[in-house]
C-alpha cells in the first residue's frame, strides 16, 4: 500500500502535526516552566525516558489486546524495526559519500587526544566539505566517526575545536545514535498501528470502538514524538558536558557562539544546512535567536536572548542561549 496516496493517512498526519504545534506552543512551555531547575540533568533524562517507555508500552499493549491483533500488525512492527535498522547500518556509507568525508591525520591526533581525556576508544576522524558544523555517526559495521567540516576547522581555535570534538565523542560515549534510533521508532509504530486500526474499523463489528482507539493512538504517537524530541535535547546537554570536561566552559561556549553567529550572518548558508537530510546530526540546530556574539559580553547577552518556544520544542537540539546558560551551571 502506498500511504502517500491515501487521504486517511494525510488527514491523520495533519491532525498529528496540529497537535504537535499546539503542544509545542501552549502546553510544553508551561510544563517546562514549572519543572525547570527542579531536577538534575540525569534525573530529568531518567524520568523522561520512563515516561516515554511507559506511555508507549501502555498504548501498544492496549491496541494489541483490545483490537485482537492479527499477525499483520506484528509484521508491521517487525517491518518498521527492520527498515530503521537497515537505515542505521547503511547511513554511514551514505554520509561519507554525500559529504566527501576524508581521513585527516592532523584531525585524528586531536580526536585521539580528546578521546584519551574522556577515557574512550578514539573514533575515526574525517573532514567533510560543508558549512561550519560537526557530527558523530557510525555503527559496529563501519566503526565510529567524528566529522568536522573544513569551514569549522578554519573558524575555531584549538581549544574550541577540542570542545566540539568532546561534544561529538560524548554522543558516541553515550550511544546516542542507537538510543535515539530505538526511541524514535516508538511514535512511528504507534502511529501506524492507529492508522491500521482506523483503516480496518469499517470492516469490523466493533468499528466505532476500533476507530476511537485508533484515533487515540495517532494522537498519543505525536505526544510521544514531542517527548522524544525533548529527550534528544537533553542528550545534547549531556554531550555538552563532555565538551566542557575536555576544554572548559569558556571554550565550549565560544565554539557554540561562533557557529551561531556565522549562520545568522550568512542566512543563505543557514538555509542550506536546514534543508540537509542529516541536519539532526549536527552540533548546531537552527533555532532562532537574534544576536551577534563577538566578545564575552556578547556571549552573555546571547544567553538572555529569547527563542521561539515552538521551534525549540519541535527541535532535536536546544537553542544556543539555553546551552550557554546550562554550561554555566556545570560543576565538576
Alpha-beta content class = alpha+beta
Rg, please? 21 Å
| Number of distinct beta strands | 4
Report the principal-axis shape.
globular
Distance between the termini: 54 Å
Biggest sheet character: 4 strands, mixed
Low-confidence stretches: 286-293
Number of domains: 2
Assembly state of the chains shown: single chain
Strand content: 5-15%
How would you summarize the topology of this molecule?
Layout: H1 7-35, H2 41-66, H3 71-99, E1 102-103, H4 105-118, E2 124-128, E3 134-139, E4 143-149, H5 150-155, H6 158-173, H7 176-200, H8 207-247, H9 249-265, H10 267-274, H11 296-303, H12 309-313, H13 320-329
Parallel strand pairs: 2-4
Antiparallel strand pairs: 1-2, 3-4
Helix pairs in contact: 1-8, 2-7, 2-8, 3-7, 4-6, 6-8, 6-9, 7-8, 8-9, 9-13
Question: Top keywords for this entry?
Answer:
alpha+beta; 2 domains; 6% strand; single chain; globular; 332 residues; Zincin-like; 13 helices
Amino acid at each position: 500500500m502506498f500511504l502517500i496516496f491515501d487521504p486517511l493517512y494525510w488527514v491523520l498526519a495533519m491532525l498529528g502535526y496540529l497537535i504537535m504545534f499546539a503542544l509545542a506552543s501552549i502546553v510544553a512551555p508551561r510544563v517546562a516552566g514549572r519543572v525547570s531547575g527542579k531536577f538534575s540533568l540525569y534525573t530529568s533524562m531518567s524520568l523522561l525516558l520512563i515516561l516515554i517507555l511507559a506511555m508507549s508500552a501502555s498504548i501498544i499493549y492496549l491496541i494489541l489486546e483490545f483490537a485482537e491483533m492479527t499477525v499483520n500488525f506484528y509484521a508491521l512492527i517487525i517491518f518498521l524495526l527492520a527498515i530503521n535498522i537497515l537505515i542505521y547500518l547503511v547511513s554511514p556509507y551514505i554520509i561519507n559519500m554525500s559529504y566527501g568525508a576524508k581521513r585527516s591525520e592532523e584531525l585524528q591526533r586531536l580526536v585521539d587526544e580528546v578521546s584519551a581525556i574522556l577515557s574512550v576508544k578514539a573514533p575515526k576522524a574525517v573532514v567533510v566539505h560543508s558549512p561550519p558544523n560537526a557530527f558523530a555517526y557510525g555503527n559496529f559495521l563501519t566503526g565510529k566517526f567524528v566529522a568536522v567540516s573544513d569551514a569549522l576547522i578554519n573558524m575555531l581555535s584549538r581549544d574550541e575545536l577540542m570542545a566540539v570534538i568532546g561534544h561529538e565523542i560524548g554522543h558516541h560515549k553515550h550511544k546516542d545514535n542507537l538510543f535515539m534510533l530505538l526511541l524514535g521508532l516508538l511514535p512511528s509504530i504507534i502511529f501506524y498501528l492507529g492508522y491500521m486500526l482506523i483503516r480496518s474499523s469499517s470492516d469490523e463489528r466493533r468499528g466505532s470502538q476500533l476507530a476511537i482507539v485508533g484515533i487515540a493512538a495517532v494522537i498519543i504517537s505525536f505526544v510521544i514524538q514531542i517527548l522524544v524530541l525533548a529527550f534528544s535535547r537533553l542528550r545534547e546537554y549531556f554531550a555538552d558536558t563532555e565538551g566542557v570536561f575536555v576544554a572548559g566552559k569558556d571554550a565550549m561556549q565560544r565554539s557554540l557562539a561562533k557557529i551561531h553567529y556565522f549562520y545568522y550572518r550568512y542566512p543563505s548558508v543557514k538555509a542550506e544546512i536546514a534543508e540537509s537530510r542529516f541536519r539532526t546530526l549536527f552540533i548546531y540546530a537552527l533555532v532562532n535567536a537574534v544576536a551577534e556574539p563577538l566578545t564575552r559580553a556578547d556571549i552573555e547577552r546571547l544567553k538572555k536572548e529569547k527563542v521561539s518556544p515552538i521551534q525549540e520544542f519541535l527541535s532535536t537540539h536546544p537553542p544556543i542561549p539555553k546551552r550557554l546558560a546550562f554550561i554555566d551551571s556545570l560543576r565538576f
